[in-house]
Amino acid sequence: MKKHQLVLCVALGSLMNTTAMAQKVDLSEVNVDAYGHINMAIMHGDTGNGSEQYIVDNKYASSRVGTRITTHLKDWGMTVGAHVEFEYQHNASNVVTPDNRNEKGSWEERHINLFAKGRYGMISVGQGSGAGDGATEMDLSGTKVASFPDLALVGGALPFVEKSGDGEVKVIQAVRSQDFEARYDRIRYDAPAFGPVKVSVSHGYKENSSDDNADTSEIAARYNTSVDGVGRISAAIGYSTQYNETGTFNSRDIVGGSLSWLHDSGFNATGVYSYADYDSNNKNETAFNMVKLGYKTGKHSFTVHRAQGQDFNPMLKDQGNDVYKAVGSDVEILGAAYVYQPIKRLDVYAAFNNFALEADMGDYDDVNVAMVGSRLKF
To answer: What pTM does this model have?
Structure first.
């Protein structure tokens, strides 16, 4: 029993000694799974300053390449491996503006970690997804590539313009889906599945908005099943907390989750909610919610959605100078998306979003963003 209870830690430690692994593992027993995709779109943005077109990399599912390398340790009944993934975005859709339509990309690390998995679950160490990553993104609609919960990732650098000329604020500063802490340097444990339920925990550190290496902890549970006469159900709930070495400055707690249902008829519904509490004089409580209704048939998927981001209170700027905070900010997003998948590796899509900002001070022009694009997987 002791051997089985310690096997995860021993296997993970062995991974870190490449010389030892080379002596014990025949290269013919190593599995290499390379993957990636390119995701480009034509984006049209309309703001109070006018309209413009862009050729962008769709940040809802950024272009990337990755590899998973695994081998099986028969004596221990374990699989050990490594996961490496990088993204490269030329003209990222959340960065381009009328003044900067061309933004050169760079390689950004997403995953660089080692893992070991067996009867007691999986342990992974390194840069990678925290336990809560994706918990607000359960989606069975088939339109996730064009209608993502973090809607400001397309057109997010475009401004809400205050109509009297007080200034402007970027869309992405006024609304976010708050999907926990994404990827960072962490140790993560995924427990063995208990029926349709999977539980994960992680702890590590991540650079926060003050450029501090903030300690970060997360826990999440995921549920996936199919029910006769009901259809497929996918759900997740999570909690994260982040704090720096003092334990208080710029700390934040996030709780949230998502639920998606796909009926056998093709009708589907998805809901998302997240709430963040900031323990800082410069922050407050922020909330996000989204409801999506859709229909999926054959190679076609269509959805309409409404989302809302409350109390992000972004700072208005005029020629780079702070003007005032849009206190009591409330952003409503109405949109629609369509995805056509002629083959498994290809998505062709179109989407539209109307972003409307209201706040205690100021009157703001809406921001309208439309895009058509395609993602090719390999």
So the answer is: 0.89
